Amino acid sequence: MERSHASASGRTGDTLSLMKQTSKYCAIAPFILVHSLVTADNHPTNAEQRVVDELAQQFVDRKAGGNILFWDNEQRRIGFKNLKHIYPSRTVHAAGEPYPLGDRPIDLGQVQYTVDGELFSVADFLAQDASIGLVVVQGGDVVTEYYAPGNDERSLWVSFSVTKSVSSMLIGAAIADGYIASVEESVVDYLPRLRGSAYEDASIADVLHMASGVAWNEDYADPRSDVALAGALNGPDLVAYLGSLSRAELPGEVFNYNTGETNLVGEILRSAIGNNASTYLSSKVWTPFGMEFDASWALGAPMAGELGGCCISATLRDYARIGLFALNDGVLPDGTRVLPEQWMADSAEPSRGSEGYGYLWWLYDDRAYGARGIFGQQIRIDPKRELVIALHSNAPTAVGSTYHAHIDVALEAIEAYFPIVNPAF
After folding, report:
1. What single-letter DSSP state applies at residue 190?
2. Residue 66, pLDDT score
3. Which of 83, 189, 214, 421 could serve as 198's disulfide partner, Cβ 3.0–4.6 Å?
4. Are 171 and 208 within 8 A, CB to CB?
5. Which residues in 30-179 belong to E strands, given as ranges?
6. Do 154 and 42 touch, CB atoms closer than 8 A?
7. Are 384 and 366 in contact (CB under 8 A)?
8. pLDDT in tens, 173-232
9. Whole-structure pTM value
């Protein structure tokens, strides 16, 4: 992707023109506007329906072009916000009363950062075509919110591997509920079909740390890689595929990013709780914490289980609420504890295999941590600043694009703008 040099005024000019075509808009900060070109019930618009129908048929036909990793720009921009109309999915139910978010607008557009020695602003970052939505919540207040044309606060967007971090939370909830004794239990205690495989000596903690020691290739650009062949497998097919892999390292010693293994976390969860993950997420977090909109979770096949490592679709503000749930250590607004005490602190501790990875959470400086998904999805959580940043993106490649080079430094610059308010964390 070519680096965008569009100015904040250029994007704002486009938006002002768009305002004439829409009936709903509101200024959130001086340099950005929230606007709507989506249907109230999150169905595809008439203009999007053709692409949605084509992608859904590709899934049915199992054509190679139907692999979401290889969609083109138009397919991604439309498909990422309409995934529940393309892949089999299960609803995650919202609350009757959403968790309240205050409004305290701050213009972050002129916050600056550098990439390859060149100076950019947050307004420049949001002017890039790949930027779909950004919300910044500090101290419980929305301080900045942006949506690209065609998206608004009701738009669902697929999270990809951000889902991994949610699955980690659900393992914590299952421990609190007594379905799982501890993360030190063996994987094969819950999935006995893996006895005799490379997973024989791996613990749940090893899998949460992506350090099972089992060989796996996560090359998104290679159609013959493990992630391309088996990244969307679930159930017996997933267990059979992973059970056929060889051991590359001792369990717990070496970090190796593995989407298939996080789908395995979903299998462990379902085996432990005797229920599907969407219902469990609804009952433990989505409904009682106060998510504003229904989400959806993609399934491995119609009526099958959810992909533990991928593909919850939710609104940007509800992604931010996931971050607020984490900041509150898994305690609901009414004081009910969902996660074991200190679960999030334990989740954000480095593992033996990686200083930068916890229980399916990425770890940053100064005890910040986050969830990340391909094509530029993020939830970034900074407990010391009581800060949550959530990002929807449509990067031109799964990883490694010029846009990706901007994401972390832009979000770090936003983070650094806010003072530390909780130094004891």
Report:
1. H
2. 60
3. 214
4. yes
5. 32-35, 89-92, 102-103, 112-115, 118-121, 131-138, 141-147, 157-158
6. yes
7. yes
8. 999 999 999 999 999 999 999 999 999 999 999 999 999 999 999 998 898 999 988 888
9. 0.88
- Residue tagged 């462990």 (tokens): 268
How far is it, in rounded angstroms, from Cα 417 to Cα 402? 23
Pairing of strands 387-393, 377-382: antiparallel
Mean pLDDT in the chain?
89
Kindly report the length of the chain.
Answer: 425
H/E stretch holding 319 reads: helix 316-327
Q: Which of the residues in the chain have pLDDT under 50?
A: 1-40, 64-65
**Main-chain dihedrals φ then ψ at residue 348, nearest 5 degrees:** -100, 15
| Residue 106: both structure tokens together | 């701050």
From residue 72, alpha-carbon distances to 75, 84, 97, 395, 403 in Å are 5, 18, 38, 11, 16
Alpha carbons 397 and 420: distance in angstroms, whole number = 34
Under DSSP, the state recorded for 165 is H
Sign of CA dihedral 181, 187, 190, 195: negative
Contact between 286 and 332 under an 8 Å Cβ cutoff? The reply is: no
As a whole number of angstroms, the distance between CA 400 and CA 259 comes to 18
At residue 421's C-alpha, the angle toward residues 416 and 423, to 5°, is 95
Read out DSSP for 242-292? HHTPPB-S-TTTS----HHHHHHHHHHHHHHHSS-HHHHHIIIIIHHHT-S
